[in-house]
Amino acid sequence: MKLGFIGVGKIASAVIEGLCTSTIENINIYLSPRNKDNVAKLTNRFSNTQKMQSNQEVLDASDVIFIALRPTDAEQELATLQFNEHHTVISFIPYLTYTDLKKLVQPAHQISRAIPLPTVVNHNCPIPVFNATALVLQIFNHIGQPLSVKNENELHSIWTLTGLITPFYELMGSLSDWTNSNGVAKEVANQYVSDLFQSLAYTAQKAETIDFDELANHAATPNGMNEQAGKEIREKGTHEIYKTAADNLLANFMKNL
Fold it and tell me: Which domains does the chain have, with CATH numbers?
């Protein structure tokens, strides 16, 4: 399989590393000359990656094209390229809609939009995909958990949640700092908080039907610590702050479309 990447930033580099360290077989990866440092690291590490001299050379060599350009550069750059009808196109660009993308990559007609995260390097990452084909799902299944969405409104709402990664890590950091201030070694506190949240998320993932209210209620033993903390945090409106932040992120996202 011949895969081409137009743009080799943080997300694209993670996807490439994830693919090269996965169980997928017989792939050759062609890289655009953008971001020379990332390209050099990848080509030095993985023998099945190759730097091309131009983005058009990437297209000419590839069957599946991943577009990972900056939103501000995408339309201008794509307008200079000649796609063909056999290309499968996968865009990682948040503000370029399917309709606009289709005009820029015609006559290609197998077009998907997807949201991989840097965690694909660990082959453990939800990857929402709009307009996914069987081939696209097959590729992403090697580096994460592809999740088909019905329309772009769903995709944009989910994309908004990726803006809450920093607050999530900050919450973990605050809890680890609190643990450390109460006599636990920093490295132990960090490991425990990381493992605690991972195990709780894993339990939800493995449920036959994911129901967060049910999971919360199950953990809230009457007069126990979880019941006490849950009540205090809800009454102080902490959860609503996250919803407000998500509302603001989505509003800003939609302005950029």
Answer: 2-149 (3.40.50.720), 164-256 (1.10.3730.10)
